[in-house]
Amino acid sequence: MATRKRRPGEKHGDLKAALLQAAGKRLEQDGPEKLSLRAVARLAGVSQTAPYNHFANREGLLAALAAQGFERLATNQAAAAQANDDPRIALECLGYEYTRFARGHPKLYRLMFGAGVGGEGWHDDELVTASKSRSFAPLRDVICRLLPEPVSPEQVDNGAMVCWAFVHGLSAMLIDGTLADRVESDDALAELSRQSIAIILDGVT
Amino acid sequence: MATRKRRPGEKHGDLKAALLQAAGKRLEQDGPEKLSLRAVARLAGVSQTAPYNHFANREGLLAALAAQGFERLATNQAAAAQANDDPRIALECLGYEYTRFARGHPKLYRLMFGAGVGGEGWHDDELVTASKSRSFAPLRDVICRLLPEPVSPEQVDNGAMVCWAFVHGLSAMLIDGTLADRVESDDALAELSRQSIAIILDGVT
DNA sequence: CCTTTATATTAACAGTGAACATATTCTTTA
DNA sequence: TAAAGAATATGTTCACTGTTAATATAAAGG
């Protein structure tokens, strides 16, 4: 098996990426439930069965979309963590970036952390779980830098879990409107994120 | 009276309740996306268009299901809050009951707090929002009893929001498998809930 | 009695995901 | 250079879905 530059029979330049992009557009517009393979194919300018050459089925396309989302979230998180030297400020930025991501792509966020499609989450899709754990790493890293020594891996995991659970719940409530009237501007969101992280921090340390 | 008066033209005893029950069964089995009106009608033993006499459409049935879920959650929360006199223990019980509900009915929980069906949450359905705010009341009550006087309504709302966001995120992570390996038994869940509430409490007060 | 009203049913339409056989096009090989 | 092979895209088909329209049924009220 040798590495080929181009695959045989390829007519479209990069159909897989084009399909993902089209699916992303329709996702943020209509939501995951209403996303139809036919509409995506139509938007990409190919026939309705062409996507089946790149994705096993509708669920496969949604999984790829979710994985892509986790990937972007991971890079965002890593960038936010490395931008600040002070671990406390880094943690605040992590939380802020997280909520900002959820707010910027609400439907994608719901797809990532929601029921997936079968109703049991993505925990059978290895590609999604891999990206997911990757997006978890920066947080654990910052927590590790933050806690007073000596720190056990269990302590780090506990702290990261608490932080993640809180920010995740905050994002979910932001999206579904429970918190929408309380946080209108981006600055208010940043302030809320900062305050909340402070609260959690005081409790954990 | 056990049986209400039969309305004109009524052939089925209480079709609306029967449909809701059937829908609940199929919901926990297949998830919200795969729930079809036809299957629900089939399970209830009526024709496929009979549900349209009791619900506007599929979304209406799902909304009724979500509202019923919030109603049950509200009664659970109220019972848990009134069972304990000590506000701190009451808060712990609230969180425990919340996560227990999410764990016991994961698909219903996702339906309640997820995208609904249109992708914008339920915040246009008044029936759902009413039940939702009702399930929020016990928590705010306990927070009010817990905070040192004098307390402003804003403080109470902030505290309740932080608690709710955290428990909500915890429940979501419990359901989608992110926390499944860490919390197997019900006792472990109770312990985690207790610890977390303590952390939050130390931060808020 | 007859009319009204809510209920339930059958029939039909349009759109969906998926499976199949088939045609096209490019890479590899002889 | 030309044939072989494989990946890709297509049209068609099937079972299923949500929804609407028209129709039949049963109870309530005159």
From TrEMBL, chains A, B:
Signal peptide interval: none
InterPro entries: Homeodomain-like_sf, HTH-type_TetR-like_transc_reg, HTH_TetR, MT1864/Rv1816-like_C, Tet_transcr_reg_TetR-rel_C_sf
UniProt keyword Chaperone, yes or no: no
Record flagged with keyword Ribosomal protein: no
Keywords: DNA-binding, Transcription, Transcription regulation
GO molecular function, one term: transcription cis-regulatory region binding
Residue spans binding DNA: 36-55
Annotated protein name in UniProt: TetR/AcrR family transcriptional regulator
Species for this entry: Aquicoccus porphyridii
Taxon lineage: Bacteria, Pseudomonadati, Pseudomonadota, Alphaproteobacteria, Rhodobacterales
